Structure formats: structure tokens, C-alpha cells
Automatic annotation (TrEMBL):
<dbReference type="InterPro" id="IPR041447">
    <property type="entry name" value="Mannosidase_ig"/>
</dbReference>
<protein>
    <recommendedName>
        <fullName>Beta-mannosidase</fullName>
        <ecNumber>3.2.1.25</ecNumber>
    </recommendedName>
</protein>
<keyword id="KW-1015">Disulfide bond</keyword>
<feature type="signal peptide">
    <location>
        <begin position="1"/>
        <end position="18"/>
    </location>
</feature>
<dbReference type="InterPro" id="IPR054593">
    <property type="entry name" value="Beta-mannosidase-like_N2"/>
</dbReference>
<dbReference type="GO" id="GO:0005764">
    <property type="term" value="C:lysosome"/>
</dbReference>
<dbReference type="Pfam" id="PF02836">
    <property type="entry name" value="Glyco_hydro_2_C"/>
</dbReference>
<feature type="domain" description="Mannosidase Ig/CBM-like">
    <location>
        <begin position="627"/>
        <end position="717"/>
    </location>
</feature>
<keyword id="KW-0326">Glycosidase</keyword>
<dbReference type="GO" id="GO:0005975">
    <property type="term" value="P:carbohydrate metabolic process"/>
</dbReference>
<comment type="similarity">
    <text>Belongs to the glycosyl hydrolase 2 family.</text>
</comment>
<dbReference type="Pfam" id="PF22666">
    <property type="entry name" value="Glyco_hydro_2_N2"/>
</dbReference>
<keyword id="KW-0325">Glycoprotein</keyword>
<comment type="subunit">
    <text>Monomer.</text>
</comment>
<comment type="function">
    <text>Exoglycosidase that cleaves the single beta-linked mannose residue from the non-reducing end of all N-linked glycoprotein oligosaccharides.</text>
</comment>
<dbReference type="InterPro" id="IPR050887">
    <property type="entry name" value="Beta-mannosidase_GH2"/>
</dbReference>
<dbReference type="Pfam" id="PF17786">
    <property type="entry name" value="Mannosidase_ig"/>
</dbReference>
């Protein structure tokens, strides 16, 4: 995010080296509102809200009800101004450019009292305003906010390089370009001839088929290998221009083909020829104020993605195109990106002015982002096909054809054309959800975009019992699904006061932007848990927060495990699920939402669950027709020989009631296979005096006695019906080892949903929210900032389910 002057010396005398002189205008600017009653200094990059806050003129915009109190800011007009002198003689330069990398949104740019430009599109290198969604506040911001394609055949890799020039000359300029990739022992030279004006030079570099090229792989599947490349232009007159870049090699294919035993088509991705289950979440803007998004924040959030065994994020179409560093980190960490264009949940105009703006936006973003190996698909919009065909906006039947034509005009005749003219290396779908190839065959709009036999689906159901896996769609790919929870008390405490600390407070209602969201969380909780009963209102609020996180984690676990085990089977014509991206990863402020990471990055219980259910090898349990079934799910590249251990525990004892270890079983690479099936009645009879209400089942996969998967569990009854569940007294002995801290836990009883919390000390545990069935357990704490044993001991608090009753 920057604002600067970009000076380009296009031609030099003989023996001159080309220099691009950049004079940055970042730093202090004067800001005033329309009538001049407010004048202050602000920082660029930045926005008006940030300047007012930093100047002490407003409180933290996220505090309590300030999103309402400060709406006047976005309703006013604001002027940024700066006086400066260029520290060199601009008259000796053939061209001087003033470049705005990001301006939000409708502005007029005046230079020395002359209007030199206007802006109306935040996404076009100089964001339509981001107003309130049901997961975030409304802060329409204003200000200056933002500072190669590879192909291969069976025998060789081809590297396509695009270089843009603005040739300020009265005659053509000739010369040579030399492309060098040292580690691939590649150097190629070709002659070039540049005509005056703005030009793009396309270069094709063929990598010898005898050269061993290491491909870029998603996290969990291999290394993220890249190569340093140098491009050197040696032009007439002794002009030399040199550019370095990082280049990656990988292929992507969206496979839509018939499936035996099922109507419709598959919908899955092959990366470097390998079919891959996409497991991950949806990414939304990190903050309402983009100038507050730091490199450290991005790295923290994206590291939490791979730490939870995810390989994919969907950048949702109602937010922003992320800054370059986001995509660079995804390249580095191996996070695949499903990239929406910024169109969501709305019907858009198709007048020529708007179409021109969109075409420029799409061309710019494709040009900016296409060389990132992490981006594997472009998607035209979020839910607009569904909105049109499900008639979310009550369109009159007589007008529907007009809206359908407008939809095709925007996303197909314009956006699709621009995308493929700039990048043919990735698939493009025009919406999510969509029926993919079926949508195309139906004229780009399907009658039912939520079909389970084609494309991807979004699924939400807050009223049905989420422990019942039969409510979930056995679809080809599920790119949105989820449940809400509240963030931890330590996160809320920063933006609230004591009078707010009640589930029924005005603050709690105001912070919830999803209609009936707070009551839906409690409804889902009552299916299997009792609600907190503490007479202390603050303690009851904290207990309710804890319970919403338990419910969210358990609901998303049940749904995700259903999708994971559906990848290799067709049941009643449905299945072959090859993607699960829950909604949503991160939070934009401190409020109840679907996120698994709180504002600031703290892990909710769901994120710890995700670390387990997205493990590369997992045992998944579920009941069908009163029998317990256990599947083995593998993301490994080779077949795996394992043994399954099934244990039955009594709620009233830390000693297992019985245990079973199978003979050696084989889980095929990338598949889900059934490993075990037993009627629950037979299981409980076999294990002494067990009943559904008095016992719980745990299971894991191992090889040669080595733990090879997380330990999973299956509840045989609702927890509010559990018999023998005791109040557990859990203690922790904390010690330090290097940069980590060791928590040696002891419990007096079996404890479900054990939650370790160290308040506002930033960091994460190696595991949390777990079922503790043994007397002792060791958990590691990874701090994100320096801390101490004494600080952790003072902040540490542990909660298990029985504690809230």
C-alpha cells in the first residue's frame, strides 16, 4: 500500500544505465473534511478513520457501538493534500508518472490546481466501498489505502514472460533480451524491436526436457520449490534494464467428467497430475481499515492455516483483492487459492461505463496475480447465479430475462473474455456455487446452482441437529458451510465494558450481524448440552462463550468429516466429494461469527479441531442404522498399512473399559475406506456394564505401535444425558524448553472439551478442546511474542464441560 511518484527514464545517451527514480510520497499528509471544520495530519498509506483515531479525535472504531457513532465519517467528503518538491530536475526526464496503487473510491486528483484524473474503482490500481456484511461492521472507508505463466507438455516446460514498456522515443528501439535461470542451467537470448508507446513484449522460454525441474506443491504434498530468474534488456544506446523474479512450475486441471454409478460430473482439481482433496476455509478482509494490516498479521494468519493442516483458502468475492504479500506468503507456504473476483450477493449494472471499469479492473488484477502458483482458479462472483435463479431479490417474472442477459454480459462476454486473454493457464468458473460444465451447457445459468451432481455448493442449516450427518449434502465440492460462535472473553474485553458482559445485553445484540444468530447458537447447543446456569452474570457469559465454541467446533467437525469420508464412494448416486472449505477462517472485528480465528489471530476451539480433522491421515467415526462405522481417510501419496485401535471409556473412570486392535489394514493413497463396523448394542454389551449414556468411544490409526493419526472420538449419546460424568479437577505444571512452554496436565476425571486459555498472551497450543480420557497429558504452548513462565501461570485458566454447570 503506497502512494509515490514513479519516474521513468526511457532513453539515455550512450553508455548510460537506465534508472527508474522513485520519489515516495508516503508519510504525512493534510486531511480536511468538506466544510473545513476538521483539519488534521494523517499518514499515507492510511484512511480517514485511522487518521482520526491516531489524532485522538475518535476512539477505537471497534469499541462498543462506535461503528454506529462514527457513520458520519463515511458520509462526509474528505480531501488529502500534500506540498512537495521533487529532489531532481524533472525537466530533464522524458516522462514523469504519478502512480496511486490504491485509492478508495470515488475521487478527483488535482495537481497544481489542475485536475489530472478521477477514480471510481478501488480495485483498479488507484474498492467499491466495503459496507456491512453479517460477519462484520459497516465502516465505508475513504483514503489512499494501497501502496508468469508456466505451461508444460509431456516432454518440456514452457515459460511465458510478459514485460511491459513505455517507450518514449521518436523512433523504434532495438536490442536483446537475455533470460537466465541459473539453477536450471538455462540462458536464452533473443532480439527485440520496441516501437514507441506502451508495449508488451511476450517471451517464450523453453526449458530443456533433459533438465530436472522441481514442481511447486501445495502444503502437505511436497515442497514449494521456486527458481530465481533474471531478465536483462540490452538496448540501443547502451541502455540496460534488469529485472529479477521468482518462477515456479506447476500444473492445475479442473476435472469434470462422468462418474460411474452417478448422474452428473465430477468436480475436482489435479495439481501436477495428482487428484487432490482441497481442505481449508474462506478468507475475508483482515480489518475494516486496510492500512492496519501488517506483514506480521498476514504471516500469523497464514501460518495458522498450514499449522491446521489446511491446503486451500477461498478469497471471498465480497472483500478485497489481497495485497501482493498475501499471495507471496501463500506461494511460500503452499496454500492454494480459489480467487473470487470482487462481486458478491448482488445484481450489477451493465452500462458501458461500468463494463469498461470492470474490464480494466479484471485485466489489472489478472496481470498482477497470474504468476502466483498458489492461485489455482478464478471465480467470477460469490452466489450471484444462485441469487438470480433462487430469486433472492424478488425479481418479477417479466424482468427475469433482462437480468439473466445482464448476468451473461458481465461475467461471460466481458470478464471471461478479459481473463482468458490475460491468462489461459487456470480454469474460470463464473460463480460459486455453480454447476460448472452443466452451467455452461445451460447457457451460463443453471436452473438449480445447488445441484449435488455438479460443481460446488454452499450449505447452511442452523435449525437442524448438526450431529445428524444425514442433513449434509453429499455433493462434489462444498466451498462454503459453517456455524457461528462467540470469540473468547479476552478478545471481547478489549472493546466492551462490564455492562456489556451478558449474552442478552445490548452490546451482544448489536455485535451480532446475522439475524437470529445468538438464538440459533443456543438452539444448536440445547440439542446435546445443557445451558450454563451460573448465578454470576459475568461467569455465565464466559461459560456461554465457551459453550458456543464447543458447539461450533463439534458441528463443523461432524460436517467436515462427512465430506472427507465421502470422497471415494457413491451412495444413491451421490458422493465423490473432493473439497471442503468451511466458512470462515478469520474475523474482521471482535464479534460472533463463523470464524475459527478471532480478530488478532487467537485460535478458537474450531481451529484446534480443524488441525485434527484435516490431518493427512484420520480415522472418522459415525453411526448408521445403529452401527458404529469407522473410515480411514488418507491424503498421503502412497498406500498406507495401519492398525485401528478402538477403545471404550466410561465417563466415571480414567481406565478404558475395553480395547480392540484390528489386524493390519490398507488405506489407499488419497482415498477414504471403511475399516470397521459394529452394532452399538454389541459394542456396549462386549464392554461390561457400558450403556450409550455411560460410555464414549475413542479410536486412532497406528503402525508398529506408533501413533499415526490424531485420536478421534464418537459420543454414543448427547452430553446432557451423560451418566457418570464427574467434575474434573485439572492442574498444569508449566516449564520452558527453548522457545516453547510445556504444560503437563493432570486430571481427576474424564473431561470432555478441555479448554486451555492464557488470556491475551499471543500464541497457540499444540492441542486444545480435547477429550481427556487419561490421567496425564502433555501439551505444548508456542508463544507468538516473548513471554515467561510466571506470566503464563498468572494468566492460565482451564475449563471442561462439567465446569459450566
Amino acid at each position: 500500500m503506497r502512494l509515490h511518484l514513479f519516474l521513468l527514464l526511457a532513453l539515455c545517451p550512450a553508455s548510460c544505465t537506465a534508472r527508474t527514480l522513485i520519489y515516495s510520497l508516503r508519510g504525512s499528509w493534510r486531511i480536511r473534511n468538506q466544510n473545513g471544520s476538521l483539519q488534521l495530519l494523517g499518514t499515507v498509506p492510511g484512511c480517514v478513520h485511522s487518521a482520526l483515531f491516531q489524532g485522538g479525535l475518535i476512539q477505537d472504531p471497534y469499541y462498543r457501538f462506535n461503528d454506529l457513532e462514527y457513520r458520519w465519517i463515511s458520509l462526509d467528503n474528505w480531501t488529502y493534500s500534500k506540498e512537495f518538491k521533487i529532489p531532481f530536475d524533472s525537466s530533464k526526464r522524458q516522462k514523469v508518472n504519478l502512480i496511486f496503487d490504491g485509492v478508495d473510491t470515488v475521487t478527483k486528483i488535482i495537481f497544481n490546481n489542475v485536475t489530472i484524473g478521477k477514480t471510481d474503482n478501488m480495485f483498479n490500481e488507484y474498492e467499491q466501498c466495503s459496507f456491512s456484511w453479517d460477519w462484520g461492521p459497516s465502516f465505508p472507508t475513504q483514503g489512499i489505502w494501497r501502496d508468469v505463466r508456466v505451461e508444460n507438455s509431456a516432454k518440456e516446460w514452457n515459460l511465458e514472460i510478459q514485460s511491459s514498456f513505455d517507450v518514449v522515443s521518436s523512433k523504434p528501439v532495438g536490442g536483446q533480451v537475455i533470460v537466465t535461470i541459473p539453477k536450471l542451467h538455462t540462458q536464452q537470448t533473443r532480439d527485440i524491436y520496441l516501437q514507441p508507446g506502451e508495449r508488451i513484449v511476450d517471451l517464450l522460454v523453453k526449458i530443456s526436457k533433459n533438465t530436472s525441474v522441481e514442481t511447486w506443491w501445495p502444503h502437505g504434498h511436497g515442497n514449494q520449490t521456486g527458481y530465481n530468474m533474471t531478465i536483462r534488456f540490452e538496448l540501443e544506446g547502451g541502455l540496460t534494464i534488469e529485472k529479477s523474479a521468482r518462477v515456479y512450475f506447476r500444473t492445475v486441471e479442473l476435472v469434470e467428467e462422468p462418474i460411474e454409478g452417478s448422474p452428473g460430473l465430477s468436480f475436482y482439481f489435479k495439481i501436477n497430475g495428482l487428484p487432490m482433496f482441497l481442505k481449508g476455509s474462506n478468507w475475508i478482509p483482515v480489518d475494516s481499515f486496510q492500512d492496519r494490516v501488517t506483514s506480521d498479521t498476514l504471516r500469523l494468519l497464514l501460518q495458522s492455516v498450514v499449522d491446521a493442516n489446511m491446503n486451500t483458502l477461498r478469497v471471498w468475492g465480497g472483500g478485497v483483492y489481497e495485497q501482493d504479500e498475501f499471495y507471496e506468503l501463500c506461494d511460500e507456504l503452499g496454500i492454494m487459492i480459489w480467487q473470487d473476483f470482487m462481486f458478491a450477493c448482488a445484481l450489477y449494472p451493465t452500462d458501458q461505463g461500468f463494463l469498461d471499469s470492470v474490464r480494466a479492473e479484471v485485466a489489472y488484477q489478472v496481470r498482477r496475480l497470474k504468476f502466483h502458483p498458489s492461485i489455482i482458479i478464478w471465480s467470477g462472483n460469490n452466489e450471484n447465479e444462485a441469487a438470480l435463479m433462487m430469486n433472492w431479490y424478488s425479481i418479477k417474472p417479466s424482468d427475469l430475462k433482462t437480468y439473466m442477459n445482464d448476468y451473461v454480459t458481465l461475467y461471460v462476454k466481458n470478464m471471461r473474455e478479459v481473463i482468458f486473454s490475460g491468462d489461459k493457464s487456470r480454469p474460470y468458473i463464473i460463480s460459486s456455487p455453480t454447476n460448472g460444465a452443466k452451467t455452461i451447457a445451460e447457457g451460463w445459468i443453471s436452473d438449480n446452482p445447488y445441484s449435488k451432481h455438479f460443481g460446488d455448493v454452499h450449505f447452511y442449516d442452523y435449525s437442524s441437529d448438526c450431529w445428524d450427518w444425514k442433513i449434509f449434502p453429499k455433493a462434489r465440492f462444498v466451498s462454503e458451510y459453517g456455524y457461528q460462535s462467540w470469540p473468547s472473553f479476552s478478545t471481547l474485553e478489549k472493546v466492551s465494558s462490564k455492562e456489556d458482559w451478558s449474552y442478552s445485553s445490548k452490546f451482544s445484540h448489536h455485535r451480532q450481524h446475522h439475524m437470529n444468530g445468538n438464538s440459533e447458537m443456543l438452539l444448536q447447543a440445547t440439542y446435546h448440552f445443557s445451558l450454563p446456569k451460573n448465578t454470576d452474570p459475568v461467569r455465565k457469559f464466559k461459560d456461554t462463550i465457551y459453550l458456543t465454541q464447543v458447539v461450533q467446533a463439534q458441528c463443523v467437525k461432524t460436517e467436515t468429516e462427512f465430506y472427507l469420508r465421502s470422497r471415494s464412494e457413491i451412495v444413491n448416486g451421490e458422493g465423490h466429494t473432493m473439497g471442503a472449505l468451511y466458512w470462515q477462517l478469520n474475523d474482521i472485528w471482535q464479534a460472533p461469527s463463523w470464524a475459527s480465528l478471532e480478530y488478532g489471530g487467537k485460535w478458537k476451539m474450531l481451529h484446534y479441531f480443524a488441525r485434527r480433522f484435516f490431518a493427512p491421515l484420520l480415522a472418522v467415526g459415525f453411526e448408521s442404522q445403529s452401527a458404529l462405522n469407522i473410515y480411514g481417510v488418507s491424503d498421503l501419496h502412497s498406500n498406507c498399512k495401519v492398525r485401528l485401535t478402538v477403545r471404550v471409556h466410561s465417563w466415571s473412570s480414567l481406565q478404558p473399559v475395553c480395547s480392540l486392535v484390528t489386524s493390519q489394514l490398507v488405506i489407499k493413497a488419497g482415498k477414504a475406506v471403511p475399516l470397521y463396523k459394529e452394532p452399538v448394542s454389541k459394542l456396549t454389551n462386549r464392554c461390561g456394564n457400558c450403556t450409550r449414556k455411560s460410555c464414549v468411544v475413542s479410536f486412532f490409526l497406528s503402525t508398529d505401535s506408533e501413533l499415526f493419526s490424531p485420536t478421534n472420538y464418537h459420543f454414543l449419546s448427547s452430553l446432557n444425558e451423560a451418566v457418570g460424568l464427574l467434575e474434573a479437577h485439572i492442574t498444569a505444571n508449566i516449564s520452558q524448553k527453548g522457545d516453547m512452554f510445556i504444560f503437563d496436565l493432570k486430571t481427576s476425571a474424564v473431561a470432555p472439551f478441555v479448554w486451555l486459555d492464557v488470556g491475551s498472551i499471543p500464541g497457540r497450543f499444540s492441542d486444545n478442546g480435547f477429550l481427556m480420557t487419561e490421567k496425564t497429558r502433555t501439551v505444548l504452548f508456542h508463544p507468538w511474542k516473548p513471554t515467561s513462565k510466571s506470566e503464563l501461570e498468572q494468566s492460565f485458566h482451564v475449563t471442561s464441560l462439567r465446569d459450566i454447570y
